[in-house]
């Protein structure tokens, strides 16, 4: 991508509604499986196992995404959503308030029901189409009830939440945010450190990341993606008092020129000590 002027996550050309539709829309089978269903599945596995538990979850995820929160809402009493993009926060509020033109997440609700149904009832996959409209609606409404606030996150400030003070979280989840929002390794370290500071001692962070990528595409624009790897993430976690509990790295199966990352990572880490 040398010689090409890439846009950034916070630029006005970043259409967050289109970002969701491009990579996690109803008809995006391959990318939806890898980028949306995998986090939902892994999140359900770790939360249902009891490895990660508590009452408060803080979420910092790229774009107005809700599929993983449909899973998390079964295990936490309150969820706080953070984002550094005003337009993404606007789209998030639009979905929470059921406003016209909001992103359609009914297919994520379907995936959430499938995951829980297969695990709970040993249903055969062909029966997943029988999930009722009421069950799908309940998945979405559960998230709307449990999300307490949507807040602007500005990692360039010493206190990214300004004057707002949140209870320290039992669990913090981030899906692909740092890949798109950080311009270099230094900004990643600084931003991730501030995010990790929201977790209480004994709490966990659950991170989904994209490795060895340089760009992703939204509409007519290409946006910068941070190029980093598993070792770098583990170093940052260790430097901030976290011990890795689970780490899984998968080769990407996508065959598209929309994005060029090579691997996906799922990592769970426990905060052992304050720094």
Automatic annotation (TrEMBL):
<keyword id="KW-0808">Transferase</keyword>
<dbReference type="GO" id="GO:0032259">
    <property type="term" value="P:methylation"/>
</dbReference>
<dbReference type="InterPro" id="IPR000940">
    <property type="entry name" value="NNMT_TEMT_trans"/>
</dbReference>
<dbReference type="InterPro" id="IPR029063">
    <property type="entry name" value="SAM-dependent_MTases_sf"/>
</dbReference>
<keyword id="KW-0949">S-adenosyl-L-methionine</keyword>
<dbReference type="GO" id="GO:0008170">
    <property type="term" value="F:N-methyltransferase activity"/>
</dbReference>
<dbReference type="GO" id="GO:0005829">
    <property type="term" value="C:cytosol"/>
</dbReference>
<comment type="similarity">
    <text>Belongs to the class I-like SAM-binding methyltransferase superfamily. NNMT/PNMT/TEMT family.</text>
</comment>
<protein>
    <submittedName>
        <fullName>Nicotinamide N-methyltransferase-like</fullName>
    </submittedName>
</protein>
<dbReference type="Pfam" id="PF01234">
    <property type="entry name" value="NNMT_PNMT_TEMT"/>
</dbReference>
<keyword id="KW-0489">Methyltransferase</keyword>
């Amino acid at each position: 991508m040398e010689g090409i002027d890439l846009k950034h996550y916070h630029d006005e050309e970043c259409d967050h509604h289109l970002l969701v539709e491009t990579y996690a829309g109803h008809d995006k089978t391959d990318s939806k499986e890898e980028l949306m269903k995998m986090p939902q599945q892994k999140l359900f596995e770790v939360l249902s196992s009891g490895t990660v538990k508590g009452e408060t979850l803080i979420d910092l995820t790229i774009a107005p995404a809700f599929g993983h929160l449909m899973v998390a809402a079964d295990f936490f009493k309150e969820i706080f959503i953070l984002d550094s993009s005003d337009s993404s926060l606007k789209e998030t509020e639009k979905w929470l308030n059921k406003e016209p033109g909001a992103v359609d997440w009914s297919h994520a609700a379907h995936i959430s029901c499938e995951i829980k149904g297969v695990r709970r009832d040993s249903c055969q996959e062909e029966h997943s189409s029988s999930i009722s409209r009421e069950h799908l609606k309940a998945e979405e409404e559960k998230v709307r009830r449990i999300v307490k606030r949507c807040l602007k996150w500005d990692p360039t400030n010493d206190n990214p939440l300004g004057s707002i003070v949140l209870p320290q979280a039992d669990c913090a989840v981030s899906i692909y945010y740092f890949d798109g929002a950080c311009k270099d390794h230094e900004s990643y370290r600084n931003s991730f450190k501030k995010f990790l500071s929201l977790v209480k001692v004994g709490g966990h962070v659950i991170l989904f990341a994209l490795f060895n990528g340089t760009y992703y595409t939204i509409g007519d624009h290409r946006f910068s993606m941070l190029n980093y790897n598993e070792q770098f993430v583990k170093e940052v976690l260790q430097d901030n008092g976290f011990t890795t509990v689970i780490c899984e790295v998968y080769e990407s199966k996508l065959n598209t020129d929309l994005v060029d990352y090579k691997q996906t990572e799922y990592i769970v880490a426990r905060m052992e000590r304050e720094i």
